[in-house]
Design brief:
Layout lengths: L16 H11 L18 E2 L10 E3 L6 E4 L2 E6 L8 E6 L3 E4 L10 E10 L9 E7 L19 E9 L11 E3 L11 E3 L13 E4 L4 E5 L5 E4 L7 E2 L4 E3 L12 E9 L2 E9 L15 E4 L12 E8 L7 E8 L2 E9 L27 E9 L3
Parallel strand pairs: 11-12
Antiparallel strand pairs: 1-4, 2-3, 3-6, 4-5, 7-8, 7-9, 9-10, 12-13, 13-14, 15-17, 16-19, 17-18, 18-23, 19-22, 20-21, 20-23, 21-22
Length: 378
């Protein structure tokens, strides 16, 4: 390996097409995976993102048959025949109809793959062009056993197509969108969590499309979350259970109003639950204390941490009481309520944890309010 001369676009210079491709490579996003560390001239290849990501999208024909339609758009494909010789720009200015090979007979299943592929006679073969094509997969005895066929070396995968025995048309249900997207260096890469790069360069930003969150690479080699102003809080219905897992209560026609938001690793939430005439409060055995699940996927970072104060309100006939909401030691995704305060008339109330008969026997119309916050794990 050596310094590559002359540099691209030098006045009165003469150089191969490879130099132009390398100039493009230098402007594209870094792949961001550990395997790419040893190949520094690689890029993150893929499709140019757009509103609703319609570029090079594969869809079924209006009247389904054994073809699919690939919409217009751009993609960037790295050279893999020999490697390290730059990136191709492939442009399609409108819908292209691509034919899918006929299905097999009884008991024959396939996974065909729609790809954008580049062929360059300078390095392999006899043609120099790019194509939208379907690569037929091998037959399998069941749909679950199907695999992709052998793809061209310089290819960007666009969609997988499930082909069943004697199938005569491709519908939307048969098509799985498997495009990856790429942007120039400094751009924000849209990517689902399960395909996110793990080795972001410092300052590289990715947008996780399935969870609507931004992350960036740090100087230490890790990642941090880019904070954005929270919008409307998200509603959730906590799972109501007991510490013993027996005599499980149920909401019935209770009114459940619970919402949360997340800022960094801080979760803000409130709970207001008004019990109804068909609510089942479970048992008042004293050991079947109530538990409530926290917002989904946001467990406590610190076991048994207090998360807020809860007002326990039975209405006008029985005096109210107070409690402290606290993480359950056995499960950091759940909280329970420790009774902490006397009744508002000054009378004492038994301590312990809220259940069907503590700090009073719960009934229709009774309710509680909780406003809380806590640190979550990520």
């Amino acid at each position: 390996m050596a310094v590559i001369n002359p540099p691209a676009w030098m006045q009165a210079g003469s150089y191969p097409a490879r130099n132009d491709r390398l100039a493009l490579s230098g402007l594209m996003s870094y792949p961001g995976f550990s395997v790419d560390e040893a190949t520094p001239m690689r890029i993150r290849q893929g499709v140019k993102p757009s509103y609703q990501n319609y570029q090079l999208k594969v869809r079924a024909a209006p009247t389904p048959n054994m073809t699919v339609i690939v919409s217009g758009g751009f993609c960037f494909i790295d050279q893999h025949d020999v490697g390290g010789v730059g990136t191709y720009i492939c442009a399609n200015d409108g819908d292209v109809v691509v034919t899918v090979p006929p299905a097999g007979g009884t008991g024959q299943y396939r996974k065909d793959t729609v790809v954008a592929s580049v062929y360059d006679a300078e390095y392999a073969g006899a043609v120099s062009e790019w194509r939208l094509e379907v690569i037929q997969g091998p037959y399998a005895a069941t749909a679950a056993q199907t695999t992709r066929g052998t793809l061209p070396p310089n290819a960007q995968i666009l969609a997988d197509i499930a082909i069943g025995p004697n199938q005569t048309s491709i519908t939307t249900a048969s098509i799985s969108d498997v495009r990856q997207f790429t942007v120039p260096a400094g751009g924000i890469v849209p990517v689902p969590t399960n395909a996110a790069p793990t080795r972001l360069h410092p300052g590289q930003v990715i947008y996780l499309t399935d969870v609507n969150r931004f992350f960036y690479g740090t100087q230490s080699g890790g990642t941090g979350e880019l904070q954005t102003a929270p919008g409307a809080w998200t509603a959730w219905t906590p799972t109501w259970g007991t510490t013993t897992g027996t005599n499980i209560p149920s909401y019935g026609n209770a009114t459940v109003d619970c919402r949360y938001t997340k800022i960094g690793r801080t979760v803000l939430f409130y709970m207001k639950i008004t019990f109804g005439s068909t609510t089942n409060f479970g048992s008042g055995a004293g050991t079947e204390n109530w538990t409530w699940t926290l917002p989904p996927g946001l467990p406590l970072a610190v076991s048994e941490a207090p998360v807020g104060a809860v007002a326990l309100e039975p209405g006008s006939t029985v005096r109210a009481s107070m409690g402290m909401a606290q993480g359950w030691a056995n499960d950091n995704s759940k909280i329970y309520f420790n009774i902490t305060g006397p009744m508002v008339n000054g009378g004492s109330t038994s301590g312990g944890i809220v259940d069907a008969t503590s700090p009073f026997t719960w009934a229709s119309g009774y309710k509680f309010h909780l406003i809380g916050q806590y640190e979550t794990t990520s």
